[in-house]
Amino acid sequence: MSHSNSTGRCVADVRTKSMRPDVISFTRRRSCLIALVALVSAGLIWSFVRSWRTRPNVVVITLDTTRADRLGCYGYGAAVTGTIDALALRGVLFEHAYATAPLTLPAHASLFTGLYPKEHGLRTNGKHRLDADLPTLAEVMSEHGYETGAFVASFVLDEKFGLSQGFDYYGDDLTGTEPTDEALHRSRSGNFVIDEALRWLGEQTTQPFFCWIHLYDPHAPYLEHRDEFGDRFQDRPYDAEIAYVDLQISRLLQFLQSRRLDESTMIVVIGDHGEGLGDHHERRHGMMLYNATMHVPFVMALPGTLPAGRRIPAPVSQVDFLPTLLDILQLDGGFSHSGRSLLSMIRGDNVPTAAIYGETDEPLIDSGWSSLQSLTTAEWKYIRTSRPELYDMTQDPAELHNLAGERADVSEQLEQDMAELEAGMETRRAGHVQLSQQEERALSGLGYVGSSRTRVQGDLQENRPDIKDMIVHYNALEDAHVLLEQGEYDRAIRQFQQLAAAAPDYELAATGLGDALFRQGNVEAAIRAYTEVLQKNPENSLAHFHLGDALGEQGNYAAAVACYEQALEREPDSAKLHYNLARTLILLGNDDEASSHLERALENDPGFVFALIELGNVNSRRGLLTRALLNYRKALEYQ
């Protein structure tokens, strides 16, 4: 008897005589169906793989502290930015792109969530973490088969602040770079960032990649980069930093070209915010919303997909970046955002322009002054503050002539538009991040983390001082602190005194005077300065803190303890406060309570070496030798 064919072919060459026709028909149909499904499945899989492999790679380069008007492609004749300029010729340049906030962490959070700061909850640097339940661009890219890597240059974007969500690799290690007087290396040069990024890119062989590179060099202090440029930028160090960044981007593009990835990789260059450089008396950024700090570069290039040499004059926002990128890649983010895709605009379609929203709370956080919000259209820019501002963007792009009084009709309409836009935002409070002593000093050294200890006088914005009136005093305070750090105590004291007289309600000037007197050794005068601050504002925890230090220096330990305790009511997570209180309690012979505060200090800052040593001493005196040894060993580990 013959046997049935076992080859799996559709047509049976050999059959048993006893097999019924209906059975034969069923067997044929089943075999053919299986083969057909296999063929279709294979085709679908291959189609998916082919689509996956042909998806473009994406490299997003964020330029920290980079003014758009300092790049050649934005019309700056003295620029040395040939690489970025060439990218603009290869792709699309947005002539009027604006930051959501003139600060690094909030602006980057907007780029990667498509939300305004009020919505993602990050309103300043160094205080909060992005909520894990907020979707990010990196998570979307990862879900669609992209390998994801990030390489950041500053502690401001450290993993602890939440932007690492969705990245397979997050390069934020700042050790081994330029030496500093702090154990924590606060930022790193662009060449180190690019080096690390190229190593990671060199390992990507199969899946498409999404790579974020953050270049921090244009942030103060500015270097001339004489090794690269000689004396070319002797009087223009800020321009030198931007030229240096351009040089690092060139290294990246050369690498992609050497791997034949230049035609299949989208390059995005976008700024987080600009730099004041003295415009409107703002030296750096964060306190004002003028174009110097809000107008950012934005260039996208992808051969064969994006048109070459297209310049788009319509105003756009950082929140538009995420939906635009996903639209170009034809990826579904699956979540809501506040931006809009700019792809139709890129294609040349006639698209209605939108008003662009911006904000900063830094004046309020730092000094209790009025916060600022802005709305920018193609024709106008309106800034809401205690003294509102209105500028004609077509005739006055430098924002020198405030027309709020003359064109009240326009101001009122834009205020109404802004209020409607804000009403549609869902306010979110991001989680608090406790910084260690070293991390606070690191951010302070970068010009971040002001005093949040100053009481806001009045609930209404119109009752608060306006930054336009206070920026001169803000600069004078900065100058006085520089003198203080240089040990120029007499000059610093005179500067603080003059500032306190000129701005009697500026509490940071008064506490600064107390600090200078204390460091000079004039403890009695320092106590008087802190006391005067507290008479005006009993809730100023910074004054309570420093008054406690001064009273302790005099040996008045009980009064010092009372000051520290009042400060802790408002700053309960301050490791330094708990430590100073513990040391004073030890001097009063209260080791038990001191131990509790030292442990609280270490909860908030596990690497607080002095607190570890002090706790070891306390445990040793209490006969807890095993605990004491453990404290000392940990202190050695962190030193």
Question: What's the topology here?
Answer:
Blueprint: H1 21-54, E1 57-63, H2 82-90, E2 92-98, H3 104-113, H4 117-120, E3 128-129, H5 137-143, E4 147-151, E5 169-171, H6 190-202, E6 209-215, H7 226-229, H8 237-258, E7 265-271, H9 291-294, E8 295-296, E9 298-301, E10 310-317, H10 321-329, H11 343-347, E11 356-360, H12 362-367, E12 372-376, E13 380-384, E14 389-392, H13 408-423, E15 431-432, H14 437-445, H15 467-485, H16 489-502, H17 507-520, H18 523-536, H19 541-553, H20 557-570, H21 575-587, H22 591-604, H23 609-621, H24 625-638
Parallel strand pairs: 1-6, 1-7, 2-10, 4-5, 4-6
Antiparallel strand pairs: 2-8, 2-9, 3-15, 7-9, 11-12, 12-13, 13-14
Helix pairs in contact: 6-8, 15-16, 15-17, 16-17, 17-18, 17-19, 18-19, 19-20, 20-21, 21-22, 22-23, 23-24
Please provide a written account of the structure.
This protein is an alpha/beta fold and 639 residues long. It folds into three domains: 55-356, Alkaline Phosphatase, subunit A (3-Layer(aba) Sandwich), CATH 3.40.720.10; 466-567, Tetratricopeptide repeat domain (Serine Threonine Protein Phosphatase 5, Tetratricopeptide repeat), CATH 1.25.40.10; 573-639, Tetratricopeptide repeat domain (Serine Threonine Protein Phosphatase 5, Tetratricopeptide repeat). The protein contains 24 helices and 15 strands. It has helices spanning 21-54, 82-90, 104-113, 117-120, 137-143, 190-202, 226-229, 237-258, 291-294, 321-329, 343-347, 362-367, 408-423, 437-445, 467-485, 489-502, 507-520, 523-536, 541-553, 557-570, 575-587, 591-604, 609-621, 625-638; strands at 57-63, 92-98, 128-129, 147-151, 169-171, 209-215, 265-271, 295-296, 298-301, 310-317, 356-360, 372-376, 380-384, 389-392, 431-432. Strands 1, 2, 4, 5, 6, 7, 8, 9 and 10 form a nine-stranded mixed sheet that branches. Strands 11-12-13-14 form a four-stranded antiparallel sheet, with helices on one face. The longest helix has 34 residues, at 21-54. The chain is globular. The N and C termini lie far apart (87 Å). The model is unreliable at 1-52, 179-185 and 450-459 (pLDDT under 50).
